[in-house]
Design goal:
Structural class: mainly alpha
Radius of gyration: 19 Å
Largest sheet: none
Number of domains: 1
Strand content: under 5%
Distance between the termini: 61 Å
């Protein structure tokens, strides 16, 4: 069994050094932002560790495909709202309340999307909700780009700079940073509503 695992690990490492690794990373990053219940970070780290000289290329691939996947999720959320959401709101008499709530979320939409793109909160859910409450699409894309540059750019740079220790650092500090950002978001939302 041990030999089998070693063989598989070697094959994966060799594959990570090929040009298809960028395509694979892009597909994982896109799918993660749309529907996969994983995070892109370990895949990005693995590809960079296999070829540290191309860290910037792989980081850009992960950022671009992640934002594209999030944009598709946003469109799906928006489409779902237009086809089913309006009818449900009308049936239950929540149309007016939803309009007020959507306006409040749109006012703080940049922060909402930014934190979703930065933290371990599933970005795909943030993208779907953003489309559902109809956050301004330009605001959504800009916040997504900025947040993903900060998140995946930091991970990519750390993988290049620190090397194999990156995974340990990510596990140790990512959740702490995410919780701090979540508290900041909640304080901001409460403050803006009061």
């Amino acid at each position: 069994m041990k030999r089998y695992l070693i063989r598989i690990t070697r094959k994966i490492f060799l594959w990570l050094k090929t040009k298809q690794a960028g395509v694979g990373l892009g597909l994982v990053s896109f799918a993660e932002s749309l529907f996969l219940p994983i995070i892109t970070d370990p895949f990005l780290i693995a590809v960079i560790l296999a070829n540290r000289s191309r860290w910037l290329y792989y980081t850009v691939v992960a950022i671009v495909t992640s934002v594209l996947g999030g944009t598709v999720a946003y469109i799906l959320g928006y489409w779902f709202f237009d086809t089913i959401g309006h009818n449900l709101l009308d049936i239950y008499g929540f149309s007016d309340r939803f309009a007020v709530m959507a306006e409040d979320v749109d006012d703080s939409g940049f922060v909402f999307v930014l934190l979703g793109a930065l933290t371990p909160i599933p970005y795909k859910l943030v993208a779907l909700v953003s489309g559902f409450v109809q956050i301004n699409p330009i605001t959504f894309v800009l916040a997504s780009i900025f947040g993903r540059i900060l998140r995946l750019g930091t991970v990519g740079f750390a993988a290049h700079l620190v090397g194999p220790e990156t995974l340990k650092l990510m596990r140790k500090y990512l959740h702490s940073v995410a919780y701090i950002l979540l508290v900041i978001l909640l304080v901001y939302i409460v403050y803006s509503w009061l």
